[in-house]
Amino acid sequence: MPLALLALAIGAFGIGTTEFVIMGVLPQVADDFGVTIPTAGWLVSGYALGVVVGAPLLTVLGTKVSRKKMLMFLMALFVVGNALSAVAPTFGLMLVGRVVASLAHGAFFGIGSVVAAGLVAPERKASAISLMFMGLTVANIVGVPGGTSIGQAAGWRVTFTLVAALGVIGFLGVARLVPDAGRPKTQTVRTEFAAFRNVQVWLAMAMTVLGYGGVFAAITYITPMMTEVAGYTEAAVTWLLVLFGIGMFLGNLLGGRFADRALMPMLFATLAALTAALLLFTATAHDKVLAAITLTLIGALGFATVPPLQKWVLDQASAAPTLASAANIGAFNLGNALAAWLGGIVIAAGLGYTAPNWVGALLSGTALLLSFLAAFLDRRTRTPGRVVAGAVPQVERQPAVHH
């Protein structure tokens, strides 16, 4: 494994920790600033919206510099945002700090995916991407519960100070280990936006929104579902989320490995299994053991779609992949926001805490249908003499640089 992938994974670990740890310390933050829990929830939704906006914006602004320098800038921005959150004297400044940190999120994973794929041979691209995302999945196993425990014992400001320190380590790792290959000749604003003329890029982002949205329809409301339906105590929810994180970790590794061998069959299988698991969750949520098993499966199946979808975007936008890759990361957070909103609607309608699972199954099932459409259009473009409207001709790919 190239050491540069380790540096990217460390950055991903810090970003994953800061994204999700706020949920564990939200009551403490609300108490300190004297705001309600729903108001404090803006620290979660504000972060997600910052990712959606920051992913394409910072990627476009970064087209004039090398990817290594842009990754260093993003990690520096991440450090500043979390340091501001740690010392914020008011809720408003805390929210600003969260948004500043979130701006780095989408662009880091988007540019990092391109860099990771370029570090290895073409047949190992999805595996390389999954190794970078491993940092995000490990964050849900170690960083989030650890940060939550530290926040509850020593104060949430200590948690965000430590997250900022992780960002410093990530910055130094990128500076030392990621090769500076220079700015690609094709990386201009115009050529990056040209990738969006390809309908396959839009299909991939739609699959990301719907597929991962299916996961978060259930996970957003996991606490009331596990306590009110399954019968767990609130203290046990932290360890249930660790199980979910373990599922994410394993699914990410398997998704990367098998996507390199058979990308579309892997996507078909994981989306179909995810849809089935979400449907089953409406029944298994009533049993403690079955609920824990199903939750782990949903984490595994949901994140097994990440490497193949990210690689699909890179392949379809190979002439200018950076902006498309970053936009696809923004699509994950758009899916999170959409799923949380829809899940809240069905709960408010009195359909119960397991109703979001039906919403999730509908979303992931729709993503499965879109994957069939994407495969069909891809076969048509590969048929001699046929061109699909909206497709961007693929340029000859350069050999991967090995380190």
TrEMBL record:
Protein name per the record: MFS transporter
What membrane topology was assigned to this protein in its record?
Multi-pass membrane protein
List UniProt keywords, sorted A-Z.
Cell membrane, Membrane, Transmembrane, Transmembrane helix
Keyword Cell membrane among UniProt keywords: yes
Cell location: Cell membrane
Q: Residues in domain Major facilitator superfamily (MFS) profile? A: 4-382
Gene3D superfamilies named among the record's database cross-references: MFS general substrate transporter like domains
Lineage of the source organism?
Answer: Bacteria, Bacillati, Actinomycetota, Actinomycetes, Kitasatosporales
Q: Just give the chief location class.
A: membrane
The membrane-spanning stretches of this chain are: 42-61, 73-96, 102-121, 128-148, 154-178, 199-223, 235-255, 262-283, 289-309, 330-352, 358-377
